[in-house]
Amino acid sequence: GAVVSQHPSWVICKSGTSVKIECRSLDFQATTMFWYRQFPKQSLMLMATSNEGSKATYEQGVEKDKFLINHASLTLSTLTVTSAHPEDSSFYICSALTLAGEGEQYFGPGTRLTVT
Amino acid sequence: AQSVAQPEDQVNVAEGNPLTVKCTYSVSGNPYLFWYVQYPNRGLQFLLKYITGDNLVKGSYGFEAEFNKSQTSFHLKKPSALVSDSALYFCAVRDRSGGSYIPTFGRGTSLIVHP
Protein backbone atom coordinates (compact mmCIF):
# COMPACT_ATOMS: atom_id res chain seq x y z
CA GLY A 1 0.00 0.00 0.00
CA ALA A 2 0.90 3.65 -0.16
CA VAL A 3 3.48 4.69 2.41
CA VAL A 4 4.08 8.15 3.81
CA SER A 5 7.06 8.89 6.01
CA GLN A 6 7.76 11.81 8.32
CA HIS A 7 11.02 13.01 9.72
CA PRO A 8 11.85 13.52 12.49
CA SER A 9 9.47 11.42 14.55
CA TRP A 10 10.11 13.60 17.57
CA VAL A 11 12.02 16.81 18.17
CA ILE A 12 12.76 19.02 21.13
CA CYS A 13 13.79 22.58 20.47
CA LYS A 14 14.31 25.78 22.36
CA SER A 15 11.90 28.64 22.22
CA GLY A 16 12.69 31.03 19.38
CA THR A 17 14.29 28.47 17.09
CA SER A 18 12.84 27.03 13.89
CA VAL A 19 12.06 23.40 13.18
CA LYS A 20 11.54 21.71 9.82
CA ILE A 21 9.42 18.59 9.44
CA GLU A 22 9.59 16.54 6.25
CA CYS A 23 6.79 14.49 4.76
CA ARG A 24 7.55 12.07 1.95
CA SER A 25 5.39 9.78 -0.15
CA LEU A 26 7.63 6.76 -0.65
CA ASP A 27 5.97 4.75 -3.38
CA PHE A 28 3.59 7.10 -5.09
CA GLN A 29 3.33 10.65 -6.30
CA ALA A 30 1.26 12.98 -4.22
CA THR A 31 -0.03 16.08 -5.92
CA THR A 32 -1.73 17.10 -2.70
CA MET A 33 -0.53 16.82 0.85
CA PHE A 34 -2.18 17.93 4.05
CA TRP A 35 -0.74 19.08 7.36
CA TYR A 36 -2.66 18.45 10.56
CA ARG A 37 -2.10 19.31 14.16
CA GLN A 38 -3.40 17.16 16.95
CA PHE A 39 -3.60 17.99 20.63
CA PRO A 40 -3.74 15.23 23.24
CA LYS A 41 -6.96 13.23 23.09
CA GLN A 42 -8.36 15.54 20.46
CA SER A 43 -9.24 15.33 16.83
CA LEU A 44 -7.18 16.39 13.87
CA MET A 45 -7.04 20.06 13.05
CA LEU A 46 -6.34 20.72 9.39
CA MET A 47 -3.69 23.41 9.13
CA ALA A 48 -3.10 23.65 5.42
CA THR A 49 -3.41 21.98 2.06
CA SER A 50 -0.29 21.81 -0.04
CA ASN A 51 -0.27 21.32 -3.79
CA GLU A 52 2.93 20.57 -5.65
CA GLY A 53 4.40 23.64 -7.23
CA SER A 54 1.99 26.15 -5.76
CA LYS A 55 1.46 28.03 -2.55
CA ALA A 56 -0.21 26.24 0.30
CA THR A 57 -3.78 27.01 1.27
CA TYR A 58 -4.05 27.70 4.97
CA GLU A 59 -7.09 27.15 7.13
CA GLN A 60 -8.60 30.06 8.97
CA GLY A 61 -6.67 30.94 12.08
CA VAL A 62 -3.40 29.32 11.00
CA GLU A 63 -0.53 31.77 10.71
CA LYS A 64 1.08 31.27 7.32
CA ASP A 65 4.19 33.20 8.33
CA LYS A 66 4.69 30.97 11.32
CA PHE A 67 3.96 27.64 9.69
CA LEU A 68 5.81 27.68 6.38
CA ILE A 69 4.85 24.95 3.97
CA ASN A 70 6.77 24.01 0.86
CA HIS A 71 5.73 21.32 -1.63
CA ALA A 72 8.55 21.45 -4.12
CA SER A 73 8.16 17.97 -5.58
CA LEU A 74 5.53 15.28 -6.00
CA THR A 75 7.02 13.27 -3.16
CA LEU A 76 8.08 15.86 -0.60
CA SER A 77 6.36 18.51 1.46
CA THR A 78 7.92 20.34 4.39
CA LEU A 79 6.47 22.21 7.33
CA THR A 80 8.72 24.71 9.08
CA VAL A 81 7.64 26.02 12.45
CA THR A 82 9.38 29.38 12.72
CA SER A 83 10.28 31.06 15.99
CA ALA A 84 8.73 28.24 17.91
CA HIS A 85 7.07 28.82 21.25
CA PRO A 86 5.92 26.35 23.91
CA GLU A 87 2.33 26.68 22.70
CA ASP A 88 3.45 25.24 19.37
CA SER A 89 4.21 21.97 21.11
CA SER A 90 1.96 19.40 19.53
CA PHE A 91 1.72 16.30 17.37
CA TYR A 92 1.99 17.20 13.68
CA ILE A 93 0.75 14.75 11.07
CA CYS A 94 0.98 14.93 7.31
CA SER A 95 -1.06 13.00 4.79
CA ALA A 96 -1.10 12.58 1.04
CA LEU A 97 -3.81 11.96 -1.51
CA THR A 98 -3.20 9.15 -3.93
CA LEU A 99 -6.17 9.85 -6.14
CA ALA A 100 -7.99 13.16 -5.84
CA GLY A 101 -11.13 11.56 -7.19
CA GLU A 102 -11.76 9.33 -4.19
CA GLY A 103 -10.00 11.32 -1.51
CA GLU A 104 -8.40 8.40 0.26
CA GLN A 105 -5.57 9.73 2.39
CA TYR A 106 -2.43 8.02 3.59
CA PHE A 107 -0.95 9.40 6.76
CA GLY A 108 2.56 9.79 7.99
CA PRO A 109 3.45 8.48 11.46
CA GLY A 110 3.48 11.96 12.94
CA THR A 111 6.07 14.22 14.54
CA ARG A 112 6.00 15.08 18.23
CA LEU A 113 7.30 18.64 18.70
CA THR A 114 8.20 19.88 22.15
CA VAL A 115 9.31 23.47 22.56
CA THR A 116 11.06 24.28 25.81
CA ALA B 1 -21.06 21.72 2.95
CA GLN B 2 -20.03 18.43 4.47
CA SER B 3 -19.83 17.34 8.07
CA VAL B 4 -19.44 14.21 10.12
CA ALA B 5 -20.42 13.40 13.68
CA GLN B 6 -19.09 10.78 16.03
CA PRO B 7 -21.50 11.04 18.95
CA GLU B 8 -19.46 8.99 21.40
CA ASP B 9 -16.18 10.18 22.84
CA GLN B 10 -15.50 6.73 24.22
CA VAL B 11 -16.79 3.22 23.70
CA ASN B 12 -16.08 0.46 26.18
CA VAL B 13 -16.48 -3.20 25.30
CA ALA B 14 -15.35 -6.52 26.73
CA GLU B 15 -12.98 -8.65 24.73
CA GLY B 16 -14.86 -11.13 22.59
CA ASN B 17 -18.00 -9.01 22.43
CA PRO B 18 -19.17 -7.24 19.27
CA LEU B 19 -18.30 -3.57 18.96
CA THR B 20 -19.89 -0.64 17.18
CA VAL B 21 -18.43 2.84 16.72
CA LYS B 22 -21.00 5.27 15.41
CA CYS B 23 -20.69 7.81 12.63
CA THR B 24 -23.26 9.99 10.90
CA TYR B 25 -22.60 12.37 8.06
CA SER B 26 -24.05 15.21 6.08
CA VAL B 27 -23.25 16.04 2.46
CA SER B 28 -25.02 17.83 -0.35
CA GLY B 29 -24.63 14.96 -2.78
CA ASN B 30 -23.38 11.41 -2.45
CA PRO B 31 -20.62 10.62 -0.01
CA TYR B 32 -17.26 9.00 0.03
CA LEU B 33 -16.89 7.61 3.56
CA PHE B 34 -13.77 6.46 5.37
CA TRP B 35 -12.68 4.97 8.66
CA TYR B 36 -9.20 5.40 10.10
CA VAL B 37 -7.57 4.09 13.28
CA GLN B 38 -4.88 5.81 15.32
CA TYR B 39 -2.72 4.05 17.88
CA PRO B 40 -0.94 6.14 20.56
CA ASN B 41 1.72 8.48 19.19
CA ARG B 42 1.18 7.20 15.67
CA GLY B 43 -0.35 8.55 12.49
CA LEU B 44 -3.71 7.40 11.19
CA GLN B 45 -4.09 4.09 9.40
CA PHE B 46 -6.72 3.54 6.74
CA LEU B 47 -9.27 0.85 7.67
CA LEU B 48 -11.93 0.92 4.98
CA LYS B 49 -13.93 3.08 2.64
CA TYR B 50 -17.31 3.27 0.98
CA ILE B 51 -17.40 4.61 -2.54
CA THR B 52 -20.35 2.93 -4.19
CA GLY B 53 -21.96 -0.47 -4.50
CA ASP B 54 -22.49 -2.91 -1.65
CA ASN B 55 -23.57 -1.15 1.52
CA LEU B 56 -21.51 -3.48 3.70
CA VAL B 57 -17.83 -2.73 3.39
CA LYS B 58 -15.15 -5.02 4.78
CA GLY B 59 -11.79 -3.66 5.79
CA SER B 60 -8.60 -4.37 7.64
CA TYR B 61 -8.25 -6.30 10.93
CA GLY B 62 -11.75 -7.80 10.68
CA PHE B 63 -13.57 -4.48 10.73
CA GLU B 64 -16.57 -3.71 8.59
CA ALA B 65 -18.91 -0.79 8.17
CA GLU B 66 -22.43 -0.45 6.89
CA PHE B 67 -23.50 2.45 4.74
CA ASN B 68 -27.09 3.47 5.47
CA LYS B 69 -28.25 6.22 3.17
CA SER B 70 -31.63 6.79 4.80
CA GLN B 71 -30.05 7.24 8.22
CA THR B 72 -26.93 8.94 6.80
CA SER B 73 -24.80 6.65 8.89
CA PHE B 74 -21.62 4.66 8.44
CA HIS B 75 -21.10 2.76 11.68
CA LEU B 76 -17.94 0.74 12.20
CA LYS B 77 -18.39 -2.79 13.49
CA LYS B 78 -16.47 -5.87 14.46
CA PRO B 79 -18.05 -9.17 15.54
CA SER B 80 -15.51 -9.96 18.25
CA ALA B 81 -13.36 -7.28 19.84
CA LEU B 82 -9.71 -7.73 20.76
CA VAL B 83 -7.76 -5.87 23.42
CA SER B 84 -5.40 -4.81 20.62
CA ASP B 85 -8.31 -3.00 18.93
CA SER B 86 -8.11 -0.35 21.67
CA ALA B 87 -7.30 2.87 19.83
CA LEU B 88 -8.75 6.13 18.52
CA TYR B 89 -11.08 5.79 15.55
CA PHE B 90 -11.91 8.53 13.07
CA CYS B 91 -14.71 8.68 10.53
CA ALA B 92 -14.32 10.95 7.51
CA VAL B 93 -16.57 12.08 4.67
CA ARG B 94 -16.14 13.75 1.34
CA ASP B 95 -18.86 14.91 -0.99
CA ARG B 96 -18.56 13.10 -4.33
CA SER B 97 -20.58 15.73 -6.08
CA GLY B 98 -17.79 18.20 -6.50
CA GLY B 99 -16.59 21.05 -4.41
CA SER B 100 -13.72 20.42 -2.08
CA TYR B 101 -11.73 17.19 -2.37
CA ILE B 102 -10.67 17.58 1.22
CA PRO B 103 -12.33 15.09 3.57
CA THR B 104 -13.86 16.24 6.82
CA PHE B 105 -12.95 14.22 9.91
CA GLY B 106 -15.04 13.50 12.96
CA ARG B 107 -13.78 14.27 16.43
CA GLY B 108 -12.72 10.69 17.01
CA THR B 109 -13.96 7.93 19.29
CA SER B 110 -11.72 6.23 21.79
CA LEU B 111 -12.36 2.48 21.82
CA ILE B 112 -11.35 0.63 24.96
CA VAL B 113 -11.52 -3.14 24.93
CA HIS B 114 -11.31 -4.70 28.38
CA PRO B 115 -9.75 -8.14 28.87
Concise synopsis of the structure shown:
With 116 residues, chain A is mainly β. Helices cover 0% and strands 53% of the residues of chain A.
Describe this structure in words.
The complex is a heterodimer of chains A (116) and B (115). Chain A has 116 residues and is mostly beta strands. Helices cover 0% and strands 53% of the residues of chain A. In chain A, the strands form two sheets. In chain A, strands 2, 4, 5, 6, 9, 10 and 11 form a seven-stranded mixed β-sheet that branches. A four-stranded antiparallel β-sheet of chain A has the order 1-3-8-7, with no helix packed on it. The mean pLDDT of chain B is 92. In chain B, strands 2, 5, 6, 10, 11 and 12 form a six-stranded mixed β-sheet that branches. Chain B is an all-beta fold and 115 residues long.
Percentage of residues in helical conformation of chain B: under 10%
Counted by DSSP, the helix tally of chain B is 0
From the N-terminal CA to the C-terminal CA of chain A, the straight-line distance is 37 Å
Q: Gyration radius of chain B, to the nearest Å?
A: 14 Å
Shape of chain A: globular
What can be said about the biggest beta sheet of chain B?
Answer: 6 strands, mixed
Average pLDDT for all residues of chain A: 89
Task: Spell out the blueprint of helices and strands.
The complex is a heterodimer of chains A (116) and B (115).
Chain A: E1 4-7, E2 10-13, E3 19-25, E4 32-38, E5 44-51, E6 57-58, E7 67-73, E8 76-81, E9 90-97, E10 105-107, E11 111-115
Parallel strand pairs in A: 2-11
Antiparallel strand pairs in A: 1-3, 3-8, 4-5, 4-9, 5-6, 7-8, 9-10, 9-11
Chain B: E1 3-5, E2 10-14, E3 19-21, E4 24-26, E5 31-38, E6 44-50, E7 56-58, E8 64-68, E9 73-78, E10 87-95, E11 104-105, E12 109-114
